[in-house]
Amino acid sequence: MDKFKKIISHSKEYGFIFPSSEIYDGLSAVYDYGQNGVELKNNIKYYWWKAMTQINENIVGIDSAIFMHPTIWKASGHVGAFNDPLIDNKDSKKRYRADVLIEEYLEKIGKKIDKEINKAKKRYGDNFDKAEFLKTNKRILGHQRKIDELNERFVKAFEIGDLKEFETKLGSVSEDANKIYLRPETAQGIFVNYLNVQKTGRMKLPFGISQIGKAFRNEIVARQFIFRMREFEQMEMQFFVKPGTEIEWFKKWKEKRMKWHKILSFGEEKYRFHDHEKLAHYANAATDIEFEFPFGFREVEGIHSRTDFDLSSHQKFSGKKISYFDNELQKSYIPYVVETSIGLDRMFLLVLSAAYTEEEIKKENGKLDKRVVLKIPFFLSPIKLAIFPLIKKDGMPEKAKKIFNDLKFDFNCQYDEKDSIGKRYRRQDAIGTPFCITIDHETLKSETVTIRYRDSMKQERIEIKNLFDILYKKLSINSLLKNL
Ligand code: ATP
After folding, report:
1. Which residue in 42, 116, 133, 471 has its CB near the most CB atoms, within 10 A?
2. Cα dist from 353 to 8, 344, 359, 430, 433, whole Å
3. How many angstroms is it from 301 CA to the middle of ligand 1?
4. Greater confidence, 149 or 431?
């Protein structure tokens, strides 16, 4: 099984991600986060929020509503400019949506590939090597080329638009109700609050506004797990600057954002920039930070210099003056914007992809065993500390629960008394828990426990009274943030 498939099934088996509405056969390209997933996701949010907002004096956060005045989407260019492309068949007089036609065509080619595989399976019997066949068979490669070409040409054209699929009605009388859209990006919530934040926060240029929130897109090619979803979360920051300084700031944010990624130590070679040559109509510089996912290098974050396109457009459509009075220059102007925009779910997939490790280990009896371990940076791990009584008697569970109750306010802890210690370690490895402690006979005599480290699997005996300090030091992200 390839690594990506393994990650998908691991995510489900260990409570990270479930397909949405699964008992009703699911809803395509929508996913739910489980008990461990929500913890990891919150920890990623915390890392971003802290790094982007709280440690920067000149960046503040907001949380704007998903529903916004419909004219906002005209001003942003999402409605009107990028409507559903429709295709008319002149003979049948039927009208089709172009994305639907494309999807059907892709499915047709997919079926041809399946047919070839089935034929080959019959021909080669037990000797059939599917992976090799997919890589080398000429007909399959031809089909695959067609799929790739089509994807490349059309995905880009459709992914932003199609708000119509996400419209809803607000108000009690539907006929005269306003058409309300589910936002395709969080950025517009920031632009329309620019004046509010600037005035109430008495912000001086350059300054930034950041936000984490849901976004919705009617993706036509949504087959890559949480890489491309119809409902997802974005973490965006719009940085408002003096016109003429935007390229300098663009370069600064490019470097800063890359540093934020690389400091997680997943390997520098796994990241690269992809500078855009063809720019969107509102941008004068743009780049993507790409990460090497199991299916290749793909965008995880975009950094764009958006000029004054959005603020000017909102000024025009709303009729409200949106500008900044520059005390030094003694004049008003519309600020330029540099934005950093990262998909939270895509970042989640990045962490899982980088952390998922299969290892062969030697058991005490000399036999080889396998373990799956998520080597997640400690501060991002869903559970920080697992607490085990060696056996379920002799006062060990009581002692273990006492430690749990002492530490649970500072660290997300888990108590587990089921199965052998070895099995309990495996379960924690599989969800990326950095530390496990075991309460044994010795604990009751000397107030010590064994601590076992996830990555090295080494164990050592430590005093209970030192536990808090050890954990605090190893889990703090302060030194990391200081290096940003
Ligand atoms: P892509 O080309 O991969 O569709 P994009 O260029 O449309 O992405 P942006 O509009 O720049 O993406 O959005 C910023 C970030 O939001 C992306 O870098 C990505 O991490 C995330 N993102 C965009 N669309 C989706 C989606 N459908 N599902 C999950 N995350 C997404």
Report:
1. 471
2. 10, 14, 15, 13, 16
3. 7
4. 431
Copy the structure tokens of residue 109: 């080619």
List the one residue out of 338, 339, 342, 309 whose CA is nearest residue 77: 309
- In this structure, which residue's CA is closest to atom 8 in ligand 1? 299
End-to-end Cα, the chain, rounded Å: 38
Whole-prediction pTM: 0.84
One-letter-per-residue 3-state SS of 108-121: HHHHHHHHHHHHHH
250: tokens are 């663009």
Q: Is the CB of 213 under 6 A from ligand 1?
A: no
H-helix or E-strand spanning residue 449: strand 448-453
> Could you report the per-residue pLDDT of 337-365, keeping only the tens digit for each?
999 999 999 999 999 999 999 999 888 78
* Closest ligand 1 atom, residue 155 Cα: 4
Dig out the tokens for 140 from the structure.
């399959």
Domains of the chain: 1-68+176-368 (3.30.930.10), 83-172 (no CATH), 383-481 (3.40.50.800)
Give a three-class secondary structure readout of 200-260: HCCCCCCEEEEEEEEEECCCCCCCCHHHCCCEEEEEEEEEEECCCCHHHHHHHHHHHHHHH
Residue 229 alpha carbon to ligand 1 centre in Å: 9
Q: Tell me, what's the pLDDT at 83?
A: 45
CA distance 435 to 462: 13
**10-39 residue pLDDT tens:** 999 999 999 999 999 999 899 999 999 999
Indicate whether residue 308 lines ligand 1 (CB < 6 A).
no
Is the distance from the beta carbon of residue 217 to the nearest atom of ligand 1 less than 6 Å? Answer: yes
Q: Is residue 223 pLDDT above 80, yes or no?
A: no
Model confidence at 85, pLDDT cuts 50, 70, 90, reads low
- DSSP conformation class of 134: H
